[in-house]
Amino acid sequence: MVSFEETNPTFHSISEAVEAFRKGEFIVVLDSTDRENEGDLIIAAEDVTVEKMAFMVRWTSGLIVAPLSPTLVDKFSLPQMVPNNEEPHSTAFTISLDSRDPSVTTGISAYDRALTLRTLADPAATAASFRSPGHMFPLRAVEGGVLVRKGHTEAAVEFCKLAGKVEAGAICELVRERDGLMMRRDDCLEFGKKWGLKFLSVSFVLVSVLTLSNYRKLTPTNRLSDRWRTVGRVGEINVVRGHRTGGALSLPPSIHSSIHKPIAHLLNCAVIGTTVLYPAMPTTYGTQLRYQPISKPTPKRLPYRTDQYRNANLDG
Questions:
Q1: What assembly does the database describe for this protein (predicted)?
Q2: Per-residue pLDDT tens for 282-306?
Q3: Same domain, yes or no, for 56 and 193?
Q4: What are the angstrom distances between the C-alpha of 200 and each of 89, 136, 203, 213?
Q5: In a domain, 240, yes or no
Q6: C-alpha closest to that of 46 among 153, 132, 163
Q7: 90 & 221 share domain
Q8: How far apart are the first and last CA of the chain?
Q9: What Cα–Cα distance (Å) separates residue 81 from each residue in 27, 67, 87?
Q10: How far apart are CA 205 and CA 150, in angstroms?
């Protein structure tokens, strides 16, 4: 089950993190304590400059990896590094690569690795744009993203989606300067404050995807128009472009018992008792999500629709 212990007010909301990510900034994303229990620097591959790559190398383990959507991995014809993955969390490494750009020399410099990352995010790039082996390690994100696997790989790709960027990221584990050990929660919070970076947990990303992306997969029942485009009204929720908001959201019972107050923090909304009222979550496209529980919950009866959540396994 998803833990919402991360709703400490020192954490940033998903909307704040997405906005920073959209601007090309690093964000710090924390893993759950029952998984790797570490923090990663995450940035979109298209935004990696020489200076940003040098920053990553300076403050992390130095093994920069590139989470990619399955579509991009297939586009570049990248096979898995090994046929039998024995990595504890099944991190899906592909073969390593470097950009074939004539300016690339050894492939390991900040310049070379930054260029390789930007090439991975270049819509014009093909499999012929790279050579293997190399010094960049792509990771294949799973289909379904953080709803299926709550890892940094999937979180990075989800942030790219939410920010409207090519679904290619760059991530690396933060390490402590004093002893080289992995940064844990408190270390990551201190690091984020020192450098002015937004920080949150993978669980925050999961909630965002559950309340936003998952609904876009449903079949619209009617259409609404605004000044940007026509959008779909989906079941109990409206996901629209521009200033218009409205509609009601049915929360899945599997997270019903713990989501109400935490989601108020995540989406910056008001809470009355256990009922969330009128929250709005702007995204980089101006999209807003506004919802209201159908009725006040009771311990024995959950008055929420569940048919649209059959594929949303939050315990995996």
A1: Homodimer.
A2: 333 333 333 333 333 333 332 332 2
A3: yes
A4: 21, 26, 8, 19
A5: yes
A6: 163
A7: no
A8: 8
A9: 28, 14, 11
A10: 9
